[in-house]
Amino acid sequence: MPYIAVNVSRSLSNDEKEQIKTNLGAKISTLPNKSEARLMVQISDNCSLYFAGNECEGAFIDVRLYGSIELQYKKEYTEQIFDIMSDLGFKKEFVYISYLEFENWGTNGSLK
User: Fold this and answer.
1) How does the average pLDDT of the chain come out, rounded?
2) How many whole angstroms separate alpha carbon 96 and alpha carbon 36?
């Protein structure tokens, strides 16, 4: 189950949130063995984000994955995330993306 947390510094409309969720889901299959059917997305807007000590209009996206994914696929998905956020007016230089990969993942009452 992939989990993606999207934190942005400005208010988003419901349509913009839907656009983010839909586009992240549509592109998640870029990552091998990942699908929208198992994707959880959290979107938090109006976060206080600072870069170099100054408040900025930006985004921090945290992608968490069960298992490891080859770098080439993460690079491709990263580019797609940058495009999604750019389409909403976020400058690419203020969008940051991290990946965490886990060997163990608890779901459906047990630990894998």
Assistant:
1) 95
2) 22
Burial of 84 (0-12, 13-18, 19+ CB in 10 A): buried
**Residue 111 burial (10 A CB sphere; 0-12, 13-18, 19+):** exposed
CA atoms of 64 and 101, how far apart (whole Å): 6
In the chain the domains, ranked by start, together with CATH numbers, are 3-56+66-103 (3.30.429.10)
Q: Output the six-digit token pair for 29.
A: 């299959």
Place of tokens 């495009």: 83
pLDDT tens, residue by residue, 2-24: 999 999 999 999 999 999 999 99
55 forms bridges with which residues in the sheet?
Answer: 50
* pTM summary value: 0.94
CA dist 104 → 27, 62, 64, 69 (Å): 24, 18, 12, 14
